[in-house]
Amino acid sequence: MNQLPESIKVITLGCSKNVVDSERLMANLRLAGKTVVATSAKKADILIINTCGFINDAKEESIHTILEAVKLKESGRVRKVVVMGCLSQRYMDQLPAEIPEVDNFYGVNDLEKIVEDISREKRMFLPGERFVTTPSHYAYLKISEGCDRTCSFCAIPLIRGKHISTPADDLVKEASKLVRNGASELILLAQDLTWYGLDIYGKRTLAGLVDRLSDIEGVKWLRLHYAYPANFPVDVLDVMARKNNICRYLDIPFQHISDPILKSMRRGNNAEDTFRLIDSIRTKVPGIALRTTLITGYPGESDTHFNELCAFVEKIRFDRLGVFAYSEEEGTRAARFSDNVPAEIKQQRVDEIMARQQEISLANNLAKTGCVLNTIIDRKEGDYYVGRTEFDSPEIDNEVLIPSSFGRLKIGNFYQVMITDADYFDLSGQVVKDV
């Protein structure tokens, strides 16, 4: 009797960059003849967990997921448990002893080794191959690995290493294949998009890359995530303004606005630089949606520093904003400082920023009522189709709810939608016409 082939399931935790790593791994496992099952599958012979190790909550989620997998192995429902990714990379010296039930631990750059070990043969790893796990109409495109920045609070360079750009020709090939397979929206990812090209071309070439990618036939939306504010390459804005298929959207984490805090964070800019950059972005790309992230409770953050941050949020009125309470990361420069802001004060400051942002978000959304916006349909939920405008990235930003009673819509298609109502974080609308 022929034995059924081993089935492999990959669980991805953390950021979208991890999603790309998992997709590359799954594609190469399939090329090696292995059976990769959907993430929703209830059973698999081998369970691979791609972990996050960036902040405390993410670490706890990763550990919990590993322990749950170990239970499945002990009950006989899983034969083998493999752990990879950031948590594994960061704690490679500790985890095997603490969780010996895990069969193998791998770091962030061990995708090829994982495929070789599972397939039991030496193979050429093809990083441009992807087993896309997002809805087929959008895909992530990671343009570089690692980071050369020296932010005092961030452990990413310790985990991911130095910045390494992927050659532009390779990215164009990968993007073209994603589009041929149905993706009309490409979301550019990197720890820092703005550093792109320095290591291989000797200069920042993000603008040229974005220009080339936007010329690929079938790319209807190109979206930029994670742009570092210091020494921002403003030529990118000229390309964004010139190309209709580059979303008027930019994810640019400012982290803080108080000069003493920015200096301690080693961000390479100050408040004056920040306001000047935001003014330049909004002047060159009118109507752009800005997403940012902030940190509260950083060591030494006084009431005065925090009040500056609140005033910044009120003045700039970001379209999208996330805020995190500072958590100490071992090995970072900030870990040497006294973590002197009590946990309850950190959380109070998070809550206050988010309360302010909630009102800003509502006002921004209400201003869109009566507008007709190009909207992509992501899915159908109950009596509604759920879509997004160019001002919103999947899973993290606002959505547009369209009653299905207005007619049948096709997932992945674009429609002109008139916004009829709004709340704090979502819009409601009705289709005017197809695009």
Task: Quickly describe the structure.
This protein has 14 helices and 18 strands. By secondary structure, the chain is α/β, with parallel strands linked by helices. It has a 6-stranded parallel β-sheet. A 5-stranded parallel β-sheet has the order 2-1-3-4-5, sandwiched between helices.
Structural overview:
The protein is of the alpha/beta class and 435 residues long. The protein contains 14 helices and 18 strands. It has helices at 16-31, 56-74, 86-90, 95-98, 111-119, 156-160, 168-180, 198-201, 206-214, 235-242, 259-265, 271-284, 303-316, 343-366; strands at residues 7-12, 35-36, 46-51, 80-85, 104-105, 138-142, 144-145, 164-165, 185-189, 221-224, 246-251, 289-296, 320-325, 372-381, 384-389, 399-403, 414-422, 426-434. A 6-stranded parallel β-sheet has the order 6-9-10-11-12-13. A 5-stranded parallel β-sheet has the order 2-1-3-4-5, with helices on both faces. The model has no long low-confidence stretch (mean pLDDT 93).
Topology:
Layout: E1 7-12, H1 16-31, E2 35-36, E3 46-51, H2 56-74, E4 80-85, H3 86-90, H4 95-98, E5 104-105, H5 111-119, E6 138-142, E7 144-145, H6 156-160, E8 164-165, H7 168-180, E9 185-189, H8 198-201, H9 206-214, E10 221-224, H10 235-242, E11 246-251, H11 259-265, H12 271-284, E12 289-296, H13 303-316, E13 320-325, H14 343-366, E14 372-381, E15 384-389, E16 399-403, E17 414-422, E18 426-434
Parallel strand pairs: 1-2, 1-3, 3-4, 4-5, 6-9, 9-10, 10-11, 11-12, 12-13, 16-18
Antiparallel strand pairs: 7-8, 14-15, 14-17, 15-16, 17-18
Helix pairs in contact: 1-5, 9-10, 13-14
